[in-house]
Amino acid sequence: MQSENRLFDDFVKMVNGVAGTFAGMGREAESSAREKFREWMAGNDFVGRDEFEAVKAMAAEARDENEILKARIAALEAKVAGPTATPKRAPKGKPGA
Questions:
Q1: Alpha-carbon distance 15 to 91, whole Å?
Q2: What is the residue-wise DSSP string for the chain?
Q3: pLDDT digit string (tens) for 27-78?
Q4: CA angle, 62 as apex, 75 and 67 as ends, to 5°?
Q5: Which of 7, 11, 58, 91 is the most exposed place for a label (fewest CB within 10 A)?
């Protein structure tokens, strides 16, 4: 009877040791994966949120300035082409009105 208990105890100790070993391997794998991911992220050229917002604001200002310049060009083209352009005619009213 005593030998069966001891055999069972030894088996339980061995299983616990194997479980502990697998848990340790899992922690090491996770740690290694995290480190590899950090190295990969550090190697890429990402911008921060504040830098992104600053560039976004500058792009909006550039679009606004572009619209203003388009309007100025259209006005200048109309001014240059003014005398040679055909004038718009007023719509004719109904006769006898």
A1: 99
A2: -HHHHHHHHHHHHHHHHHHHHHHHHHHHHHHHHHHHHHHHHHHS-PPPHHHHHHHHHHHHHHHHHHHHHHHHHHHHHHHHTTTTSPPPPPPPPPTT-
A3: 999 999 999 998 888 878 788 889 999 999 999 999 999 999 999 999 999 9
A4: 25
A5: 91
Note the maximum CA span of the chain: 129
Q: What separation in angstroms does the CA of 86 have from each of 38, 76, 82? A: 68, 17, 8
- Spatial distance between the Cα atoms of 17 and 13, rounded to a whole number of angstroms: 6
Give the C-alpha separation, 55 to 61, whole Å: 10
Quick: pLDDT tens for 7-34.
888 889 999 999 999 999 999 999 999 9
Cα(87)–Cα(52) distance, rounded to whole angstroms? 49
